[in-house]
Amino acid sequence: MTTYQQSLFKELEKANKNLKKVIYSAAASIEKSVQQIVDAGANDVRERISKPGSGKEYTYSYGPHRASSPGEPPSARIGGPLYKSIVSQITQSRKDGDKGRVEGYYGANIYYAPFLEYGWRRKSSVGEPRPFMRPSAEYVRSITPGIVARNWIKNRNAAIKKLSGSSKNSGADQVSYVGKMR
Description:
Blueprint: H1 3-49, E1 57-60, E2 63-66, H2 81-84, E3 86-93, E4 101-108, H3 113-118, E5 120-121, E6 126-127, H4 133-166, H5 172-175
Helix pairs in contact: 1-4
């Protein structure tokens, strides 16, 4: 092998390492985005249910409580069972032929949450829906593109900055202008 071929081979190895760093950076930005989206959803649900309702007022041992009217999110006290049941979770899995998957979930893990969300019918009573998860899902759908784009740009720029500092001729300085999004 000639010295030219050896230097070319070394440059290709460097480029391969740099490409791997950028790809790992992209994976980290996706995971961070999923975490932020799930947290925003859970926080939005907590905020919706912690507001007082416009329904009937009750007096309990902890003080007065104003219930929600049908069509409003349920009125739950902060620290109460419904409020505490709002959880979020991130899972990572690998399936056959899959490079990896990050999934995020948020919701209420208390048995009566679906009855509040969709309403109920029993022999003796009818409960009108008091949606709190579906409006939150709409909110999350609206903010997801911005969160993903912001994290992608931030991690991509950080990876390019690291690459341009680690190798004088890595090509990172030529691509640093790509993808300026608003």
